[in-house]
Design brief:
- With about 220 residues, the protein is an alpha/beta fold.
- The chain folds into two domains: about 140 residues, 3-Layer(aba) Sandwich (Rossmann fold), CATH 3.40.50; about 70 residues, Winged helix-like DNA-binding domain superfamily/Winged helix DNA-binding domain (Arc Repressor Mutant, subunit A, Orthogonal Bundle), CATH 1.10.10.
- Helices cover about 50% and strands about 15% of the residues.
- Strands 2-1-3-4-5-6 form a six-stranded parallel beta sheet, sandwiched between helices.
């Protein structure tokens, strides 16, 4: 018999965690080896247990499950993350996959689709809950990320998160809008902005925009009008 796939559950609702454990226990291919009720504990346990799979909620009491997913994937490249969340909006799903998740299931359909999702993700495939609208799937397939036309050593010095914040700043989003989109605090966005401007040796938003346009990170048409 093949070795069971180990699973860590990260969700702040004890009753829902119990439900997930009962559901997973029905399949002999999987074994729950740990559970956490917040993001920090979830990340710590992931590093300690090195599970094959993590079942992650987005709305955690201390930090976003999106950020925890990104942290887990940056430290444990072999660990796959499947999001199980009440959120079914396009932005949440897009950000989950951008952060490194390979599966997404809506909580209301978890009883029917979680096992299917775990099977797919454990094989290295992507899984998207079929209850999610075709519109969302289309948005995901379009991929919002832009490729750079040229490289620049200063740009490469930015962390992936700083590059993400830089693009959004260049596109004209406010600190508050960026915080909401990335599920982080406005203070964190401000800190990223300060680091970005320092690393790129830029001194104004317009300089940032010109720099982003030169690298092909944003469309010039965004700033016509």
């Amino acid at each position: 018999m093949s070795k069971k796939k180990t699973i860590l559950i990260v969700d702040d609702h004890p009753l829902f965690r119990e439900g997930l454990k009962s559901l997973i226990a029905r399949n002999p291919r999987f074994e729950v080896v740990g559970e956490a009720g917040n993001g920090r504990k979830g990340l710590r346990m992931a590093r300690e247990l090195k599970p094959d799979l993590v079942v992650m909620d987005i709305s955690l009491p201390d930090k976003s499950g999106i950020d925890v997913t990104r942290d887990i994937r940056s430290h444990l490249s072999e660990t796959r993350v499947i999001i199980v969340s009440m959120h079914s909006k396009i932005d949440h799903i897009t950000k989950a996959f951008e952060a490194g998740a390979t599966g997404y299931v809506v909580k209301e359909s978890a009883a029917d689709r979680l096992t299917q999702g775990l099977e797919a993700v454990s094989k290295g495939d992507y899984f998207l809950d079929s209850s999610i609208s075709h519109k969302v799937v289309t948005r995901l397939m379009e991929s919002p990320k832009k490729k750079t036309k040229s490289t620049d050593i200063r740009y490469e010095s930015l962390t992936p998160r700083e590059q993400q914040v830089m693009r959004l700043l260049a596109e004209g989003l406010s600190v508050k809008e960026i915080a909401e989109r990335l599920f982080i605090s406005p203070k964190t966005v401000e800190n990223h902005r300060t680091n970005i401007m320092s690393k790129l040796d830029l001194h104004s938003t317009m300089e940032l925009v010109r720099y982003a346009v030169r690298l092909g990170l944003i469309d010039v048409d965004l700033w016509k009008g």
